[in-house]
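Appendix B, example 12.
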Amino acid sequence: MTAIARRRLGRTAVHVTELGFGAAPLGGFRGAVPQADAMGALDAAWDGGIRYFDTSPFYGYGRSELRVGALLRDRPRDAYVISTKVGRVLRPFDAQRRSPGWRAGGLPFDADFDYGYDGAMRSVEQSMLRTGIPRFDVLLVHDLDTFIHKDPDAFEDHYRTALDGALRALHDLRAQGVTRAIGAGMNEAPTTARLLRDADLDCVLLAGRLTLLDQTACDEVVPLCAARGVALVAGGPFNSGILAAPAVPGAAYHYATAPDDVVLRARALERLAAEHGVPLPAAALAFALTCPVVASVIPGPRSAAEQAQILDWHRTPIPAAFWRDAVSAGFVAPAAVFTQGAQG
């Protein structure tokens, strides 16, 4: 096993491996993942040195937490870092009152949005029972953005409730030692920046907005994290898959079908990476880690083979000339390549 470097999570005492494990796909929402494949991916991650695992009650309506717990619950508690989320409370599935946006592919439960204080406390208790783990290293308020809550009034209501409810609960749980760090798991940059201004957070997990195809996190989120000592966890480094495989029409991007211009941009990035002798997915993983506020990047493998490939990509050196050419070609904004090593 090759050791994976660790980075501090903001101002906290939590240190995460810079390559983590995003367990959303293990829930099965976007395609069934058999139990053997899911556990194979988790075992391969552990054997490969990964010690940071992110999950949520929403991922497969409990399935992801059950699977992550099966890997971790009998291992030494101080050997790993686990994050999960609040903002939804699960209940047994009832087709007569199925919630809007209900997804097939999970366990027979449904998820009701609840950003209140009591809802957050109940959610954490449920997560403990599913994982078999009595304390979490990181707790995040989940999906508090307009990407999920498209109705402006509904979003504002959830936002206000979360500030006074769920986030207050997480502060109390941190004070009680139930968690060591608190933050938010988000899908878009503007609402993440708003929350960074309005709340006292240790970290934010932002999906798909600090990538080779989408660098909107650089506008406000990264500077705010730097100013406030908040860590950024980069989710979705492959933008739902388009950066992990040859870009073709119909490729996934931001949980939907990639527009033609995004496919063309991804193909051009593939050609540039090939000119420098590196796989584009390796560069995609490395990109977020060039940012000093980033503590970890968390792709979401679905099998042992996918996890092994991710580990290989993570170990692939990216020449400084690639970053220089990526900036020159307009693929990467100059301000988006942060470290001296990446700048060459």
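The CA atoms of residues 54 and 83 lie 5 Å apart. The chain has a mean pLDDT of 95.
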